[in-house]
Amino acid sequence: MLIGLVRDSVMQCFCHSCRAPVLPAAHRRSAPVKKPVGKPRTKQPKKVKFITTEIRCQEMSKGGLAYEVILAEPVGVPAPRRADSPEKTSSVEEIQEKLKAAEERRRSLEASKMAAIAQKMAKIEEASRIRSEQTNNFISTTKEALDAKMDSHEEKREAYINELRARLKDHLEGVEKTRLSLEQQTAEVYKAIEEKMNTAADKRDENIKKMLERLREHEEQVRKVRNGNQERFQQLESAIQDKLQQAAERRLLLEAEQKEKLRNHNNKLVEVRSVITAKMEEITKDIETKLTAAEQNREKEMQKKLDFVKKEERRAELVRQNKSARAECEPAPTAE
Fold it and tell me: GO MF annotations for this entry (predicted)?
């Protein structure tokens, strides 16, 4: 906007009452004028009425400035009148020289005007190029920051997955150790039961042998006293049979109790294994849900960043289109 106002103020300086436009003093000095031989009476061109401008700067918001350009009313400076010189008729050659000088002045003014316009267009192109470079730099820095953030997120995700795997590995190792210890305890229990059974069988055999020996001794003694005490012999035989039956029944009860203990121990082992497998399945399901949630969050974050980059690219494209449209809509100054 400021460039457009300054351009309008410069274009207003090209006011002229005759055919060719008149530039400020700096441009008039660049085009030399040949003085005629004589001093004929000619009309002096009117002096340029410069437009004074005032630029006010005001801080509208934090980090932003607003410029206000105020154009003052043109102030006319009356030129001192020269004394009228005696009229003198100009010849055809002098008129042609004046026309040539005027043509040269017009051409020089047009050339200086075209050079100024070309300089301004070059400045506008340079500004647009700088703006596009800044936009490209911003896009590249944003992309690099996004890539760095995604890399750090990937590293954190891999570290979290590795930590979960290490925890799961430790848990599985603990479960395996528990299983091995349970198997070892079960083997020890089996071994102890077998040893007890063996010792019980040995003791039983020894007891039976002792009882048989006693029975033999008793039979011998019974044989000795059978003739004299048949009734007592029958009572003793029935008592021995009862004792043998009770011993057999006691042995069966012991075997049944040992078998029941083994069955209960096996049931407990099956229950512990089922609980361990259920816990492992729950842990694996929890890990899978967390991984899927992390993947979804990562995709959402990537989509947000891509939308922001696309929005910035569209904004930069709109700015370039507006600048090009403004440059095309501004009319180029032409000589009257």
Answer: tubulin binding
What are the tokens at 230? 């048949």
For residue 109, how many other CB atoms are within 10 A of its CB? 21
Give dist(CA 99, CA 109) in Å, integer: 15
CB burial string 122-137: b at 16+ within 10 A, e below: eebeeeeeeeeeebee
- Locate 273 and state its tokens: 């294994």
Q: What is the pLDDT of residues 247-261, one digit of tens each?
A: 989 889 988 888 888
Place of tokens 């694996």: 284
d(CA 235, CA 241): 10
pTM: 0.24
Q: Greater confidence, 197 or 235?
A: 197
pLDDT at 22 over 50: no
Nearest to 109 by CA among 1, 181, 30: 30
Structure tokens given for 195: 């040893």
Output phi, psi for 60, to 5 deg.
-80, -40
Per residue, the 3-state secondary structure of the chain, as one string, reads CHHHHHHHHHHHCCCCCCCCCCCCHHHHHHCCCCCCCCCCCCCCCCCCCCCCEEEEEEEEECCEEEEEEEECCCCCCCCCCCCCCCCCCCCHHHHHHHHHHHHHHHHHHHHHHHHHHHHHHHHHHHHHHHHHHHHHHHHHHHHHHHHHHHHHHHHHHHHHHHHHHHHHHHHHHHHHHHHHHHHHHHHHHHHHHHHHHHHHHHHHHHHHHHHHHHHHHHHHHHHHHHCCCHHHHHHHHHHHHHHHHHHHHHHHHHHHHHHHHHHHHHHHHHHHHHHHHHHHHHHHHHHHHHHHHHHHHHHHHHHHHHHHHHHHHHHHHHHHHHHHHHHHHCCCCCCC
